[in-house]
Amino acid sequence: MTIAIGERLPQATFKEKTADGPVEITTDALFKGKKVVLFAVPGAFTPTCTLNHLPGYLENRDALIARGVDDIAVIAVNDWHVMGAWAQQSGGLGKIHFLADWDASFTKALGLDADLSAGGLGVRSKRYSMLVEDGVVKSLNVEENPGQATVSAAAAMIEQL
Q1: Which domains does the chain have, with CATH numbers?
Q2: Mind listing the pLDDT tens digit for each residue in 16-58?
Q3: What is the largest CA-CA distance in the chain?
Q4: Which residues form the active site (predicted)?
Q5: Is 124 helix (H, G, I), strand (E, B) or coil?
Q6: Is 49 a catalytic residue?
Q7: Which residue out of 49, 75, 104, 116 is catalytically annotated?
């Protein structure tokens, strides 16, 4: 069952690459007492994710913060090395969190996992965005087609704030 608006996020621990190596970030540390935009991609370095979805959030970071967002995070079913390389390559390092859901446990707990084995990717996340306030989902925007980033794009999130 897919998480719904008004529900609390499940507890999880992610890994994020920093200058000092990997750190663990819990859902409590990221969301407690904060307004956070979380968006998910099927995979770091994949075409739509790299050329469309992520750049929109990086370009609109300041606009989101100006509308009261405390933090922005992207999550993918990739390891922290890949997410760290993507953060560095994209220019997003230090601007938003690049979270590794390496075993898809958080993604599966949300009910937002997708079997993309036919495309050679295996189990991944559906493409979505959500606004989370103090750990509770306030808006949820799931793409019907993983190759598109429209309802989950930064511009759509700005309109919801």
Answers
A1: 7-33+42-160 (3.40.30.10)
A2: 998 788 999 999 999 999 999 999 999 898 888 888 899 999 9
A3: 41
A4: 49
A5: strand
A6: yes
A7: 49
